[in-house]
Structures are given as structure tokens and as C-alpha cells.
Design brief:
507 residues; nine-stranded mixed sheet; eight-stranded mixed sheet; 22 strands; globular
Length: 507
């Protein structure tokens, strides 16, 4: 069965859902479908972070992270207030515990002032006024940092998008992508897999008719017969005259599904279908969604989706697991708010920090260790295909050679609770090994270039009819509302371009 829409989003994490929401607001009547391989909302990066609304102080002026975080932090607070989502603007301390960190701390002070962020310099006595149990030589207080539940934010965005006419389909793993000029076809199958997105919520599949709005729909909702024979989707994609598929494909990558994508893309005989009656149940193994524009917000699998579409992303997701601990409830009073170390600019990770969450519990972490699967939330989870892909990628070995000392320390703290506790004591001397308890981990979708460079900024690229979001780690949740508008603007621009060229024949 084939269903038509204007914009198809892969991945219903907070960025994908914000994008769908932004499209429905900017262009009412645009038919938006979001595909999500998981059965529920916010299952990966969105639902597995510390819940911090970042101020934007870390990010260099002119970067997308700085622009979107500065704007997004204020918008996120207002969004939570407007929709009764638990949140609090707590402020945070960034604490120097060693003299070697003082120059970096002063650089952050200057950057904060340049960004217009309220920053206050603190000495040891003033640190104690905020956090009596925290030890440091100097610190800064950043007033605009806050906390919330980003899973709740994602669920709210899903509700708002679906109320505006978008449809979110759970349990739909993307298995094939074909392209022709002005049209993309995506084959899906039910069940979890390796090429999907990062959590979502909603109901429905498709929308009969386009509704009023500035964006004509053009592609009527139709059902087409699908012949289940193998097809090289790379050949289908090449008809658009784009770059060849990524030559860095490694064992275990997603292959082509047994769906005739060429026929799905063509004007095959069809009969009308009322897709408004189709529920949000998982798609069948021969379901195809056809769209004018595709948006890749697949998070941990975004590079795979790009290659499946025939594009060369020029990077690879190398998964890093961030392991958290929680202070025992009886010791949670050791921390009043948010306490961070001075970050090392050589790494995109902020280091182990202390976070009192919206539920009152105190999280400690995360560290950063290589994950043995893209969704490897502990050492026991090993996916050979994912691991082979990481090991075969040249960038992984460049990282290992460049940062082996840092990595060895992170591994040691991962495997030894005593070592982890010693690291925490730099900030919180009173903590004891028995005070910390394991907590659910997260996996960061870190884009790595072939030379081993860790992509530090958000990375959003465009190819004909597709917008790829190839790097959106922290502070993407904080910045999700302006990021969603940015992606939506690019997608709607593509739609308008198609219409200016005379549109696409209904299929």
C-alpha cells in the first residue's frame, strides 16, 4: 500500500516533532507524516538526558549551537510555561577546581557577556552560598540555565502537531528509499530495527485532502499496488542526478528492502484510499510513503538514512554512551541545583556534573565511553553490525589515537565505581562510594568526520528533495524549537520550489 504526503519526517524525537509542529504552524494544510520505528515517545536521546535547559554559554559566537541555544532556552521556558510542563529556571555553577582551569573559566565569563547571558563571578566563599558542599577555587553563576522533562516536551509537541493535522506512525522501520526529481518514496516495515528515529507520539497515517493553507497539496492520497521484488534503490536514487552513494558503507549496513520502489515512485495504476481511517499501528512490510520532501531526523541512525537515500553524508555516527549515577535519596541534600566542571575545549563533552532534576533527584554524570551498539545503553548490549561499522571507519581510529589518554580515563571510571566517585569528589568532597547508585544511561549520536574530527556544531545539509540533520547532540533538546523552524523553513522552501517549477503529477 502507498500513501502520499507533502513532507515526510523520519524520526520522532524532539527535533523531528518540533519540525513537524513548525511546518503545521507555518503552512497549515501541508500534509505531514512522521515515521518512528519505536512503539513509544522519546525512547533514545530525547528521553535519556539530564533534562537541562542550557544557556548557550559554551558555544562560540556565530555557531548554530550558540544562535539556537540562546534563542531556544528562552523559548523552551515559555513553551513549558504555556503548556504546563514541569520546569524551573535554577541557574548553575561552573566551578574551577584546579588553577589550570582558571583561564578557561575566565574565557567563559567573556563569552557569556558577549552573548548577553547574566554571569556572576564567584570566589570560594560565594560558591558556598549557592552550594555549601561544593569545593572550588573560583566559579561563575549562569542565571538562565534551567531544568525540565524533555520527554514531556516531545509528547506535547506530538499532540500539537497531530491536532494541527500531522500524523505520526509508530513501529515503522525505514528499509528502503527511492528518489526521482521532485519525489521521494520510503519503504517501511513493522518492528524495531537499525534504521529509524528517536522516539515519538501520535496517531494516524496520511490525511485525505490537504485542507486550507498557503501550501497546495497536489499529490492526492492514493493507494498503489506494490510488487515485492528486490530493487537497487541506489539506482533509483541516481535518477535525480545526485552524488553516488557513500563508498564508506561497511558490513552490517541496512540493505534494500524487497519493495519495488521504482513502481512506487512512478504513476502506477491506483485506486483512491481514505488514509484517515488508517490507525497508527505499525506499517506492514510492503508499505510505501511518497512525499515531495523528506526530512531525516533519525538521530543515532541519521547517517544510515542518508546513505539509504543515495547521499554521501561525509561523516559517520560513532555512538558514545553517557553513564549516569544518582545520589541516594538520603544524600540528595548535598546538591542544591546544577554544578558543572570547567569544560575542556578539546572535547565536545562537558564532563561529569551534578544535576538536581525536575523530580528532585540528583543525577551525577555522564562520562563518555564508546558504545558497542548504536542503542547500547550498557556493556552487555553488543550489536556486531554496529560495532563492525565503528571499527571499520577510519575516523574511529583517528579518535582513538588522538584521545587515548582521555578515553582510558573514561573507561576506568566506567568500570570502577571507586574511580568514578573519586572524580566526583573534585566537585563534591563529601560524596562517598556508597552514596551513588547506577542510573539509566544515554547514547550520544556523535558525528565524526573521516579524519577523526568530532563535529562540534549542528550539521544540517540539503540534497534534492531531502533535508538531512546529521549532527544534533546537546543542546539540541534546549534548541529544538528554533531548530525545528530552521528545518521546516528549508523543507517548505523546497516545496515552494517544486510548485514554482510546475509541481509534481499526482501518483
Amino acid at each position: 500500500m502507498a500513501y502520499d504526503c507533502d513532507v515526510l519526517v523520519i524520526g520522532a524525537g524532539i527535533v523531528g516533532l518540533s519540525t513537524a509542529y513548525a511546518i503545521t504552524r507555518a503552512a497549515p494544510g501541508t500534509r505531514v507524516v512522521v515515521l518512528e520505528k519505536e512503539p513509544g515517545p522519546a525512547r533514545h536521546q530525547t528521553g535519556r538526558n539530564s533534562g537541562v535547559i542550557h544557556s548557550g554559554i559554551y558555544y562560540p559566537p556565530g555557531s548554530l549551537k550558540a544562535r539556537f541555544a540562546l534563542q531556544g532556552s528562552a523559548e523552551m521556558v515559555k513553551f513549558c510555561l504555556d503548556h504546563a510542563i514541569p520546569h524551573e529556571v535554577t541557574g548553575k555553577l561552573i566551578v574551577a577546581t584546579d588553577r589550570a582551569e582558571l583561564p578557561r573559566l575566565h574565557s567563559l565569563i567573556q563569552r557569556g557577556r558577549e552573548h548577553g547571558i547574566p554571569v556572576r563571578e564567584l570566589g570560594p566563599a560565594q560558591i558556598a552560598q549557592y552550594e555549601p558542599e561544593v569545593s572550588g577555587l573560583a566559579a561563575i553563576h549562569v542565571g538562565t540555565t534551567g531544568i525540565t522533562d524533555f520527554g514531556a516536551v516531545a509528547r506535547c509537541l506530538a499532540t500539537l502537531a497531530t491536532e494541527a493535522g500531522a500524523h505520526i506512525v509508530y513501529g515503522s522501520e525505514v528499509t528502503a528509499i527511492g528518489r526521482r526529481a521532485g519525489r521521494v518514496a520510503v519503504g517501511v516495515s513493522s518492528g524495531g530495527g537499525v534504521a529509524g528515529g528517536v522516539g515519538g507520539a501520535g496517531a494516524g497515517v496520511g490525511r485525505a485532502g490537504g485542507g486550507a493553507g498557503r501550501m497546495p497539496t497536489g499529490m492526492g492520497t492514493m493507494a498503489a499496488g506494490v510488487v515485492r521484488t528486490p530493487v537497487d534503490t541506489g539506482c533509483v536514487a541516481s535518477e535525480a542526478g545526485r552524488a553516488p552513494a557513500d563508498t564508506e558503507r561497511v558490513p552490517g549496513e541496512v540493505g534494500c528492502a524487497p519493495i519495488d520502489m521504482a513502481r512506487a515512485l512512478g504513476d502506477a495504476p491506483h485506486t483512491p484510499a481514505d488514509t484517515s481511517r488508517v490507525s497508527s499501528a505499525p506499517a506492514s512490510s510492503d508499505t510505501v510513503f511518497r512525499a515531495r520532501v523528506l526530512i531525516n531526523c533519525a538521530g543515532l541512525h541519521c547517517d544510515r538514512i542518508a546513505r539509504l537515500a543515495g547521499d554521501a553524508p561525509g561523516m559517520r555516527i560513532v555512538p558514545f554512551r553517557g553513564e549516569y549515577h544518582t545520589l541516594a535519596p538520603a544524600r540528595a541534600s548535598l546538591v542544591r541545583g546544577l554544578v558543572y566542571p570547567v569544560p575542556d575545549p578539546a572535547f565536545p563533552f562537558l564532563g561529569v556534573h551534578l544535576t538536581r532534576g525536575i523530580d528532585g533527584s540528583v543525577h551525577i554524570g555522564p562520562n563518555a565511553v564508546p558504545a558497542l551498539a548504536r542503542e547500547g545503553y550498557d556493556w552487555r548490549t553488543v550489536r556486531p553490525a554496529d560495532l563492525a561499522g565503528t571499527l571499520a571507519y577510519p575516523g574511529s581510529w583517528h579518535i582513538a589515537r588522538r584521545h587515548w589518554r582521555y578515553g582510558a580515563g573514561e573507561l576506568h571510571r566506567s568500570l570502577s565505581r571507586r574511580a568514578f566517585t573519586e572524580a566526583v569528589r573534585r566537585l563534591l568532597p563529601a560524596v562517598r562510594e556508597e552514596d551513588i547508585r547506577p542510573s539509566p544511561a544515554g547514547v550520544r549520536a556523535q558525528a565524526v568526520l573521516p579524519d577523526g574530527t568530532l563535529a562540534d556544531d549542528f550539521l544540517i545539509t540539503e540534497t534534492p528533495s531531502i533535508v538531512h540533520v546529521l549532527n544534533a547532540p546537546s543542546p539540541a533538546a534546549t534548541a529544538s524549537l528554533p531548530i525545528g523552524r530552521e528545518i521546516a523553513g528549508r523543507a517548505l522552501g523546497m516545496l515552494e520550489g517544486r510548485l514554482a517549477e510546475g509541481g509534481v503529477a499526482s501518483g
